Amino acid sequence: MMKINQPYFILNLSPWPILMSMNTFNLMISNLMMMNFKFNLMLLMNLFMIISISILWWRDIIRESTFQGNHNFYIMNLIKFSMILFIISEMFLFISFFWNFLHNSLAPSIELGLNWPPKNINFFNPLLIPLLNTIILLTSSFTITLTHLYLLNNSKKKTMIFMNLTIILSIYFLMLQMLEYKQATFTFSDSIFGSSFYMATGFHGLHVIIGTMFLIINLMRMLKLHFSYIHHISFELAAWYWHFIDIIWLFLYMTFYWWNN
Asked: Residue 58, Cβ neighbours under 10 Å: how many?
């Protein structure tokens, strides 16, 4: 049988896409059920299944790229293009949050008393925790850029140092975000202001959690010597995603925090 020399490879049949889709749908249903019941076992089961499927799916992709060598430079370019499309779709999600905020802040309705923020809403001081979080994320963007630089220069020790520092900064950001939520004097149900604020910052926090998991997995792969200075696409995609999170936070800070004071 003649072997054809071409840059593609045929993916094996995988159960993870359909299982992930079904569990994501069930997660939405269980979230709706949780609004009527304090404890929802179905929600915990779906979260466990989604985490398990993610781990197994990641395992298969790592096997294809690192051990089977199927991710050549042509395939890597296709994966990068797919990541660009994913980031663009996420960008439009946050554009909808900004659109909602600017629409309601520039022309407050009569139900809000024509005020923005609405009366009796005591908002955060943008020069305290929000500013500190901004500095933390900007610093993490700098450290992950240094991580990439030292990875390209084949300096493993410095790569590991700055990768660990980036992860520590991301966890610190999440802790401060939780502290800010605990100190808030308004809730999600406090008019369009509360729902807009918590939806935007909450989804950003969720992206930070996902990005942190992405970085931790890449750190584990670095420890196992899966990356080289010419083949580290997983880390590159994680760095792109992290820069995207940083840029979104800058817009969140300028609109939701600075604009309201």
From this structure: 16
Report which secondary-structure segment, H or E, holds 97: helix 73-106
C-alpha distances in Å from residue 175, one per residue of 87, 181, 256: 25, 10, 19
Q: Is 159 exposed, middle or buried (0-12, 13-18, 19+ CB in 10 A)?
A: buried
Cα–Cα distances in Å, from 3 out to 6, 9, 37?
Answer: 9, 12, 59
Looking at the structure, do residues 60 and 96 belong to the same domain, yes or no? no
106 and 154 belong to one structural domain: yes
Q: What is the pLDDT of residues 147-156, one digit of tens each?
A: 999 999 988 8
Which one-letter DSSP state was computed for residue 66?
A: I
Average pLDDT of 130-137? 93
Alpha helices, H only, 107-256: 129-152, 156-183, 191-223, 233-252
Asked whether residue 162 falls in the same domain as residue 185, the answer is yes
pLDDT mean across residues, the chain: 86
- The answer to the question of residue 8 being in a domain is no
